[in-house]
Amino acid sequence: MVFVYIVRCNFIAPDQEAAWNNWYSGPKIAQMLAKPLFQSCQRFHRVTGNWRNYLALWALQSPQALKTPEYTAQWGFAEWSSHITDWSRDLFDGGDAAATDFAVPPDGALQVASFDGVAAEAARPMIANVDLTWLPVIGLDRHTPLIGLRALAFAATASPLNGSSFVENAIYRPISDFIVARGGAPPATKPRS
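Predicted structure:
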């Protein structure tokens, strides 16, 4: 069983965006994966579709990961906070999935559909016959009642879902490797340009 912590946002300072991405995909991921109960992380940038440009997908062993003193002492965007907009942080139940089920290879893509601001009862009928892994929200900001994810091996096969019923419907390309915490020590990270 895995819990999926998803952070989505936009960055509004183009002259500082490369530096922010280097920080987030490097020292920030290493810092977070050194915390208790954090298993893995991968960052993405939207290439097509709508809504937020950035998505970070963290796999956790337990929702308690977000309540430890180690996490609560250092969460957030630090000095980059004033350049972050449309920020959401939601915790989802990954069910029987493993952290690696959400890993995307360098040439792959992540398909995402969500229903920000829509009630669960209204969202559920819209997902019938949609081939994504649907995760219900269980904590934090609860921007969406559920999120649909699909890791694709090749970005060339990616296209947003048809129809306008999804509030967010996007394809994201990886901007970091799929990084796994090892023995509590921060992993070596190398951001991708």
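Summary: Residues 184-193 have pLDDT under 50 and may be disordered.
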